[in-house]
């Protein structure tokens, strides 16, 4: 019962009713999402590469992050198996729990099987992990606030000590939430000096993945890790061709660079056919009509044999989301022990965001940010092909600008380098010149974070669908 002191009413201290088993505070159900929890557990069970469990450990996910007691037991068992180097699946997990007398508490083998069968692919696991983390932190905040109210009402001690204890609890939540990515200068300066030494010792040689084009490599010094490179142009300017030529340079240069291509527009067999014909220098039109010589057939077989031995992977799944692309690239990189050296995405506007209900501009912005994040995570250059909008072709001819990138200005912002392709238009290169198989292509290096910008010229051989270095002869001869 309340009593009056000095004319003011003071309420009796109240006890916070928090039940971990019931998941309630003051009679209210705490935030949770069973579907996300089961999604994370199912991803761990069907993964097979330990990528998911590794990611959970990196995100500091503990068993108490899971709201449902059965889920806590299953996750704890999975962690124990992983730490012991034992493969994780439903049977092994159930046996582990059974030996410790906890299988029935976890819902028995039936519940574990039902969880594992909830999903077909674990590509969305990072989204589910984020939901589990979010709900856990919300529960911790509610508990902390509720306890703070109860202690504030009954506190008779030093106010500074009380506030300090509250700050410590809030800080504890924050430290769990934020990863240990802040590093002191002493931890990173040596790495910077190592990069400077490499630049000095290179004596002007390429330090990144070569593009195969002398003029571009001179300006860009190759394609570098952590970089998102956008190659954009209107349809018909050979975006896929130049990307395949760069892939060829990476695969068959001085050092073979493992390369992954996401083809959302063409089938893998079609890309390989183009690569083979291009590298063998076989006319695409003659090939499609079956009119090739024995020598050309020999070249085709030789190139096909080269490609079979090359570290090249193509994923031609249509309608991929940015989350799926990142998950697949991450998985391959893990299989290659972190040696994936180049990723090409053809093309950006065909990708889906994680939430199709968002406006398209926001969706493209999410995809663009995801591409940049992927380049940092893989420590590899990521080439992203993109479309230019129709405005770039209207009115008097002008070279395209980065602002002409279709659907979102965030692409321009996120990219480390932007290459804009356009057909050079001059007196000797008119609309009547379409029969000419060698097109002069202007490549504008419109943005480069760590180097110069400006235009370069390349030749596009339409017969071979192949880009070539441009020899700077008298333009009047073109």
How is this structure best described in words?
The strands form three sheets. A nine-stranded mixed β-sheet has the order 8-7-9-10-6-11-12-13-14. A three-stranded antiparallel β-sheet has the order 3-4-5, covered by helices on one side. The protein is built from 16 helices and 14 strands. A hairpin with a 4-residue loop joins strand 13 (454-461) and strand 14. The radius of gyration is 29 Å and the shape is elongated. It has 478 residues and is an alpha/beta fold. Helix 6 (125-154) runs antiparallel to helix 7 (159-177). The longest helix is centred in the N-terminal third of the chain and has 30 residues, at 125-154. 45% of the residues lie in helices and 14% in strands.
Number of helices: 16
Question: What is Rg?
Answer: 29 Å
Order of helices and strands: EEEEEHHHHHHHHHEHEHHHEHEHEHEEEE
Low-confidence stretches: 1-21, 426-435, 473-478
Shape: elongated
Strand content: 5-15%
Helix content: 40-55%
Sheet with most strands: 9 strands, mixed
Mean pLDDT: 80
Number-wise, the strands total 14
What is the terminal-to-terminal distance?
Answer: 98 Å
Output the strand order for the largest sheet: 8-7-9-10-6-11-12-13-14
* Structural class by secondary-structure content: alpha/beta
């Amino acid at each position: 019962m309340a009593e009056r002191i000095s004319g003011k009413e003071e309420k009796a201290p109240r006890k916070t009713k928090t039940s971990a088993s019931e998941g309630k505070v003051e009679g209210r159900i705490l935030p949770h999402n069973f579907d996300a929890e089961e999604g994370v557990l199912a991803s761990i069970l069907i993964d097979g590469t330990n990528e998911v469990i590794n990611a959970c450990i990196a995100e500091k996910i503990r068993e108490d992050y899971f709201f449902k007691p059965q889920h806590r037991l299953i996750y704890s068992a999975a962690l124990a198996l992983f730490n012991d180097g034992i493969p994780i699946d439903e049977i092994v997990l159930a046996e582990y729990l059974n030996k410790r007398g906890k299988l029935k508490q976890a819902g028995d083998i039936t519940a574990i099987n039902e969880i594992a069968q909830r999903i077909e692919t674990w590509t969305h696991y990072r989204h589910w992990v984020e939901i589990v983390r979010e709900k856990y932190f919300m529960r911790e905040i509610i508990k902390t606030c509720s306890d703070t109210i109860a202690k504030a009402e009954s506190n008779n001690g030093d106010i500074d000590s009380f506030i300090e204890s509250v700050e410590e609890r809030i800080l504890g939540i924050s430290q769990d939430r934020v990863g240990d990515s802040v590093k002191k200068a002493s931890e990173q300066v040596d790495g910077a000096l190592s990069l400077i030494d490499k630049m000095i010792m290179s004596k002007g040689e390429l330090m990144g993945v070569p593009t195969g084009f002398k003029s571009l490599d001179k300006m860009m010094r190759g394609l570098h890790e952590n970089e998102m490179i956008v190659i954009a142009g209107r349809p018909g300017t050979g975006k896929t061709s130049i990307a395949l030529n760069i892939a060829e340079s990476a695969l068959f240069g001085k050092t073979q660079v493992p390369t992954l291509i996401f083809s959302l527009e063409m089938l893998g067999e079609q890309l390989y056919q183009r690569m083979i014909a291009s590298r063998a220098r076989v006319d695409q039109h003659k090939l499609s009509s079956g009119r090739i010589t024995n020598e050309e057939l020999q070249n085709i077989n030789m190139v096909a044999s080269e490609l079979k031995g090359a570290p090249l992977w193509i994923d031609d799944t249509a309608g991929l989301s940015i989350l799926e692309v990142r998950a697949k690239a991450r998985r391959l990189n893990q299989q290659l022990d972190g040696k994936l050296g180049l990723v090409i995405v053809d093309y950006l506007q065909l990708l889906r965001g994680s939430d199709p209900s968002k406006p398209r501009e926001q969706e493209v912005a999410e995809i663009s940010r995801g591409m940049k994040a992927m380049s940092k995570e893989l420590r590899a250059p990521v080439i992203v092909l993109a479309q230019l909008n129709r405005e770039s072709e209207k009115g008097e001819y002008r070279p395209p600008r980065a602002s002409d990138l279709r659907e979102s200005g965030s692409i321009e912002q996120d990219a480390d380098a932007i290459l804009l392709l356009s057909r050079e238009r001059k007196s000797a290169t008119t609309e009547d010149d379409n029969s000419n198989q060698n097109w002069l292509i202007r490549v504008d290096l419109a943005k480069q974070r760590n180097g110069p910008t400006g235009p370069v010229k390349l030749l596009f051989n339409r017969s071979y669908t192949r880009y070539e270095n441009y020899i700077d002869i008298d333009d009047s001869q073109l």
